[in-house]
Amino acid sequence: MTCRTLAATLHDELSDDSRIETRRALLRQLADDHINAVPFQQVDVKWLQLYTDATILETLSGLLSPHPATLALICQLDMAIIIAGGANRLETIHLLIGIAQSRLEAHCPQPTPSLPKAPLAPDLLYAPHPIPELDPPSVEAFITSCSASPFILRGFANRDSEVCPSWPAFGRWSSADYLLATAGPGRVVPVELGRAYDDEGWSQRIVPFEDFLRRAGFLENPTGEAMYLAQHSLFRQMPGLEEDIAIPDYAWSLPDADYPAYRRPAEPELSVWVGSGSSEIVSPPHTDPFFNCYIQVVGEKRVWIAPPHLSHQMEAHTPDSNGSVAAKEYMGNTSRVPILKASPGDAWAAHPSFKESVYPHSREAVLRSGDMLFMPPGWWHAMRGEGAGPGWSVSIWF
Fold first, then answer.
1. What's the CA gap between 252 and 248, in Å, rounded?
2. In the chain, domain spans
3. pLDDT by residue (tens digit) across 341-385?
4. pTM check: above 0.85
5. What element of type H or E holds 203?
6. pLDDT at residue 221 in the model
7. Which DSSP symbol is given to 250?
8. Annotation: CATH topology of 129-397
9. CA angle, 182 as apex, 93 and 166 as ends, to 5°?
10. What's the pLDDT at 110?
């Protein structure tokens, strides 16, 4: 049975019995309740599948109604990806998004204005040492000699090399016109609200993709509360953007990991980090349990790092046992020291033991468009958007 036949059959049934619509909505709500009841890693896959399938059924019925709420249908399809990962139905969801978007009037974004560029930021503010810079090593040299500590490859992703072709994203992703045309109208994304996730008042929200691009500075100088599209699998939602990047060969290699919590993912995990510059967005010092090829596509980002053996001196938060699941997940590996948030003098004055034990071993750099930062698992790192325009980074965990 084709999607069109299935939709027609479903629509006929709904016309005969409106109770089915209510039952379908209840199924979606039931799945949503179970998904939100436990940490995401513990969610039974059957609830993700139920949420996705109920969403698809609602969309099929909605598309055949006389006056479909098309933007709402696109939004709920995006939510099936954001919440449930598309649960074995990703191609179907992308197909339905395309059908729904074709029902909308042609989307004609206004030309993106030229925004001012700030002078280059100094590389060292919070650390005494720069992050080492290398020429791109071969995969063999990377595994045997380079994978034990962080390094930067300047201009790596905007030129061809033997380990990675250049990325078409350069020259494309700074254009709101291109991003909106590739995504299509009606799309929504999950954003963080606030300067940093360890600030009071930090929250999360689903917003229209176009509104987010406007606030991040792609369409105009940003005003209002800061928004950050952080650690999001945007390529699952908008696969057209994934065609603009290439995974470096390093991410398919098998370097040794001297880190007990490391568990290699089945395949490289890609996330995007998009927000405004002007020091508005800060990621506090924290750790990740994976190797990371972190590539700056648009704008600039300041990076501060410290080695894993200093973890006991990093003054990590102790999550409140009564706190939310999200708070425990974020704060358990996050330092209380306000690196990149407070001025260096204020940070050291409030945390003198940190200044004495960690600062001498820390490193710092500013990533610019095309640069790749490599980090092994367990390294502490803080990041801050720099410059006047928006910033866009891609992390590749492996």
1. 8
2. 3-103, 129-397
3. 989 989 999 999 999 999 999 999 999 999 999 999 999 999 999
4. no
5. strand 203-208
6. 82
7. G
8. Jelly Rolls (2.60.120)
9. 115
10. 45
